[in-house]
Specification:
By secondary structure, the protein is α/β, with parallel strands linked by helices. The protein is built from 13 helices and 14 strands. The protein has helices spanning about 15-20, 35-40, 55-65, 80-90, 105, 110-135, 185-205, 245-255, 275-285, 305-320, 340-345, 355-370, 385-390; strands spanning about 1-5, 25-30, 70, 95, 140-145, 160-170, 170-180, 210-215, 215-220, 260, 270-275, 295-300, 305, 320-325. The structure holds nicotinamide-adenine-dinucleotide (NAD). It holds the Pfam family Epimerase.
Length: about 400
Amino acid sequence: MRIAVLGGDGFVGWPTALHLSNLGHEVHIVDNLSRRWIDTELGVQSLTPMDSIQERCRIWHQETGRKIHFHLLNLATEYERLKSWLADERPEAVIHFAEQRAAPYSMKTDRHKVYTVNNNTNATHNLLAALVETGIDAHLIHLGTMGVYGYSSVGAPIPEGYLDVEIDTPTGKKAQQILYPTRPGSVYHMTKSLDQILFQFYAQNDGLRITDLHQGIVWGTHTDQTRRHEQLINRFDYDGDYGTVLNRFLIQAAIGYPLTVHGTGGQTRAFIHVQDSVRCIELALQDAPEAGDRVRIFNQMTETHRVRDLAEMIAKLTGAEVAYLPNPRKEADENDLIVKNDQFIALGLKPITLAEGLLSEVVDVAKKYAHRIDRSRVPAVSAWTKDIAKRVEHDPEGKRLRSVS
Ligand SMILES: NC(=O)c1ccc[n+]([C@@H]2O[C@H](COP(=O)([O-])OP(=O)(O)OC[C@H]3O[C@@H](n4cnc5c(N)ncnc54)[C@H](O)[C@@H]3O)[C@@H](O)[C@H]2O)c1
């Protein structure tokens, strides 16, 4: 199959491109490399040394004889180029990762909020409009987030995208399924909620075939393909904006930094290993909706954990300390989370869970590249509101010079 991987230079996009190429598909990465520019803006870098995308594709070809094509294109601002690219390449499937994906980055300043909304909603809408205009009947798979559901404890399992409701009509109660009400907890999550409405409209109005994957927090770094050569290594974010919770704990443990738990650590979140993430995309590709179907929604996660339990587990495994810090986010201190993921299990997913071996592999990778870490960029300091900003801890290690006066 000819597959476009939009955002294929990123943390999940790159191993997905390799996975699909390895399965024999013709893979085209489309990326504007904005994530690399954001590293420059923030003054951070991936923990793992990442080659240019062209070099990565060259090494893949050298190792496997398979070609991955790269196209530099901004989905959000270059609509006409996107349209002609689609018309020329005519992909049979499009996997859409190309959005600004860090909640803390989206909350940094008003400029970051504006950028995230413009980038994400325009990228998604441009793609939808261009698919309709070019008449390309590609299966569109989008990477959404579990965060669209919000994190209030409702007590009932979160269904896969749609909620059964009963509405009162003059002739009695009528059953209906509606999109699960969104409750985004950041500007980033808000853009993913807006994406859902865009998908609903284009599936119903134009018969676009769309799958939306509500993904949990991705952990791990290697997949079977990124392990094949040092220069195929995946990016790995440790900083306070882009590092995600479980990976951050593992990196912190590797460099002797206290595990930074926000608030009581009572937040319960959904997780998935990066190897399962790429496998889920393979499974979703094989199960495309028909034109006229509603958007197919999967919960792409394999397990849920409370943040403080994760910290305590990793502390026990590695001997690291745990630091409880003021929470820079506006969110419930404690929540429960039960999530349905029956569809992927039915399609054959065999979940990788938090096995010690894989946790240690991440710690080993982090130790190997520990010299590349700037410890001052480890704390999460983007605050959700101006009031919260006053209590954010910038120096969990207590290393900064203090005034003596
Ligand atoms: N990493 C996670 O834990 C996680 C969890 C849930 C959902 N997701 C979703 O999966 C997707 C991929 O996440 P990731 O961790 O790989 O993110 P990432 O930031 O590493 O990769 C995103 C890629 O998209 C590119 N991009 C962004 N805007 C673009 C534009 N306008 N035009 C072209 N390219 C653009 C970036 O340059 C980058 O290479 C995101 O949409 C994210 O919301 C990720």
